[in-house]
Specification:
The protein is α/β, with parallel strands linked by helices. Helix content is 45%, strand content 13%. Helix 9 packs parallel to helix 10. The two termini are 19 Å apart.
């Protein structure tokens, strides 16, 4: 069965990411984690060198490059066919990561930084454009929207148009509503509920909810006990048409989505 979804495995080579900060910022540990995700049939490895959790501090360009480039080179050398994504908002880091072997940019700022669109277009790489309100320092300080779904759609549409105007291939663009980035629990749930609405833009949709604080609010669970909630959202979003799933728990997510796809396929066959 050919999968109609893609699982993006999170690899934070940072000391301070909310879920796994400090666990994979050494090359050997990072490569062991990559191996486990490859064994679980991951589609994309998303390498990040700067935490974007609420309250996170900014990392300078040189330090971020120092963190991500060695691991990207190591992954590319061992798994040359594996898609590697660079999770960054800095054009200089994007450039360095692509030269090291990355084939995708995952940007929480939707390529708004100076030079970011230019780098993506020059190298003809995939991009994930995410909606975020505010900065990591203040984005969870009482965010407000008149209509969160429409405002997120409007923003992403503007960013898509900016990318296309610069010459980007539309086939390279993925959209992410930015769950947890300047949103309350109510906003997050509304956006997840409207995954199918986002699909109406005609582009693939990525959802990143794995282990996020929304599950502390919903379930009163600490970070390491949020797998079930994360999988429930992944399955719901898949049934609503989501295409990419950015997760910490690759094997479990692949299992849930594989079974979900099989059931949907059988239902479709039975109706013919």
């Amino acid at each position: 069965m050919t999968r109609d979804f893609k699982v993006m495995g999170v690899l934070n080579v940072t000391p301070d990411s909310f879920s796994d900060g400090g666990k994979f910022n050494q090359l050997d540990a990072a490569m062991q984690q990559v191996q486990s995700m490859v064994d679980a049939t991951v589609d994309v490895i998303d390498v990040g060198g700067e935490s974007t959790r609420p309250g996170a501090e900014v990392v300078n360009v040189d330090e971020e490059i120092k963190r991500v480039v060695p691991i990207i080179k190591a992954i590319k050398e061992k798994y040359p066919e594996l898609m590697i994504s660079i999770d960054t908002s800095k054009a200089e880091v994007m450039e360095a990561a692509i030269m090291a072997g990355a084939g995708m940019i995952n940007d929480v700022n939707a390529l708004e930084a100076d030079g970011a669109i230019e780098v993506a277009v020059k190298h003809d790489v995939m991009v994930c454009l995410m909606h975020k309100k505010g900065t990591p320092e203040n984005m969870q300080d009482n965010p407000e929207y008149d209509d969160v779904v429409q405002q997120v759609l409007d923003y992403l549409d503007e960013r898509v148009e900016a990318c296309l105007a610069y010459g980007m291939n539309a086939d390279n663009i993925i959209l992410d509503p930015g769950i947890g980035f300047g949103k309350t629990l109510s906003h997050n749930l509304k956006l997840i509920q409207n995954t199918s609405t986002m699909k109406q833009m005609g582009l693939p949709v990525l959802l990143g909810v794995s282990r996020k604080s929304m599950f502390a609010d919903l379930l009163n669970r600490p970070v390491q006990e949020r797998l079930a909630g994360s999988l429930a959202v992944a399955q719901f979003a898949y049934l609503q048409g989501a295409d990419y799933f950015r997760v910490h728990d690759v094997a479990e997510t692949v299992d849930v989505l594989t079974v979900s796809q099989r059931l949907v396929d059988m239902q479709t066959e039975d109706s013919l």
